[in-house]
Design goal:
The chain is α/β, with parallel strands linked by helices. The chain is built from 11 helices and 12 strands. The strands form 2 sheets. The protein has a 7-stranded parallel beta sheet. A 5-stranded parallel beta sheet has the order 2-1-3-4-5, with no helix packed on it. The radius of gyration is 22 Å and the shape is elongated.
Length: 323
C-alpha cells in the first residue's frame, strides 16, 4: 500500500531530489510553510491531515489531531516541543511511532565537544584571542598552564547517541569517564552515576559536558549548587540545550574564577542578544548552535528518513525510535 508522506523541511536541492526519488512510489506532499530553521515550531498545514507519515517539524497539536498519521520523524536530535505526556498518549493510543534524527548529529556533536576540550586544554582559543588583541607572548605562564586530556576525569550529563559517540572518540585518551543516567549503560568505558553519587564525581571532574535535552525535569539542572560542587578550574561545555543551564549562575562561577572555562553552543535565548553578558564573560566561548552541523546535513537527514521508511513499510525496527 502506498503512503502519503508530508514534509515541511526545506532541504538543499540535492537532498530534495534524493527525497523525491527515494520515496517513490509513495505520494510526497511538501508543506507551503517549509523552513530550514528547525528551532522554530512548524505552522499548521491542512495537508498534514491527509498524511500517513510526517517528516520535518510538524505542529505537535496538529499531529495529535491528524488521525491518519502513523509515524512522525523530526529532523532534529532534540524534540522538546513533542516531549509532552498528551502527545505521547495520543500517538501511542493509535499505534503511531515517533523518531528523531540523533544518529545524524551524534558524530558532529561529539567531534565538536572533543575539539573544544582539546582547544581549551592546549590554550588555542586564548592564544588566538591574544593574537587579536595585545600579542603579549605569555610564554612561561601559558606553557605551564597547558593541560592534557589524557587521564582526565570527564563527566557526561546524559548518555544518548552523542554521549556514546563521544566515549568512543575519547577512548585513546584513557579518561576516567562517568555519565549521569537513570538507565544502565552497556559501555564498559563509562561508569554510570546516580544523583546520590554526583557530588563526589563533580568534585573530581576536569570536564563536565552537558548533553541533556530541555524539559521540565532538566530546566536549570546546571545551577549554582551544581557549579559549586565542581573543583576549582573545571571546564563546562554545553552542547545540549540552553534552558538546562542557569546562565546567571554560570556567569557568577566564571566571574569568581571558580569555573576554569565555559563553552556554549546553545544558550537561552537563541540567538543570544549582542548585549548579553555571556559574550564578554571571562573564559567563556560561544558558537551559534553549530555543534551538530555538517556539510552534508540535509542529505544525511534524508538518508536517515529513507532508511526508516523502508523499515517502516517492512514492519522492521526504526532507528532513533523514541516511542
Amino acid at each position: 500500500m502506498n503512503l502519503t508522506l508530508w514534509s515541511n523541511g526545506k532541504f538543499s536541492e540535492a537532498a530534495t531530489r534524493l527525497l523525491v526519488e527515494g520515496v517513490r512510489p509513495h505520494r510526497l506532499v511538501f508543506s507551503a510553510h517549509s523552513t530550514a530553521w528547525v528551532q522554530a515550531a512548524g505552522e499548521v498545514d491542512p495537508a498534514l491531515a491527509e498524511a500517513d507519515v510526517a517528516f520535518g517539524q510538524p505542529d505537535a497539536d496538529q499531529c495529535m489531531a491528524a488521525s491518519r498519521l502513523r509515524w512522525v520523524e523530526v529532523t532534529t536530535a532534540g524534540y522538546t516541543r513533542y516531549d509532552r505526556d498528551d502527545f505521547r498518549k495520543v500517538l501511542r493510543a493509535r499505534g503511531a511511532t515517533f523518531t528523531n534524527a540523533s544518529d545524524v548529529f551524534a558524530d558532529s556533536c561529539a567531534h565538536h565537544a572533543l575539539g573544544m576540550m582539546l582547544a581549551l586544554g592546549r590554550l588555542l582559543l586564548a592564544s588566538y584571542r591574544d593574537q587579536l588583541t595585545d600579542r603579549s607572548w605569555p610564554y612561561l605562564a601559558w606553557r605551564y598552564d597547558a593541560r592534557l586530556l589524557t587521564g582526565s576525569t570527564v563527566v557526561l550529563l546524559g548518555f544518548g547517541a552523542i554521549g556514546r559517540r563521544l566515549s568512543e572518540l575519547l577512548a585513546p585518551f584513557r579518561p576516567h569517564l562517568y555519565a549521569v543516567r537513570r538507565q544502565p549503560i552497556d559501555d564498559p568505558r563509562v561508569r554510570r552515576v546516580g544523583e546520590g553519587d554526583l557530588a563526589d564525581v563533580l568534585g573530581r571532574a576536569d570536564h563536565v559536558i552537558n548533553l541533556l535535552p530541555a524539559n521540565d525535569s532538566t530546566r536549570h539542572y546546571v545551577n549554582a549548587p551544581f557549579l559549586g560542587k565542581l573543583k576549582p578550574g573545571a571546564r563546562f561545555y554545553n552542547v545540549g540545550r540552553g534552558a538546562t543551564v542557569d546562565q546567571d549562575a554560570l556567569l557568577a562561577a566564571l566571574a569568581s574564577g571558580h569555573l576554569g572555562a565555559a563553552y556554549l553552543d546553545v544558550t537561552e535565548p537563541e540567538p543570544l542578544p549582542p548585549a548579553h553578558p555571556l559574550w564578554t564573560a571571562p573564559r567563556c566561548y560561544i558558537t551559534p548552535h553549530i555543534a551538530g552541523g555538517r556539510a552534508d546535513q540535509d542529505e544525511a537527514l534524508v538518508h536517515h528518513f529513507l532508511a526508516n521508511l523502508k523499515a517502516f513499510t517492512e514492519g522492521k525496527p526504526l532507528v532513533d525510535r523514541v516511542f
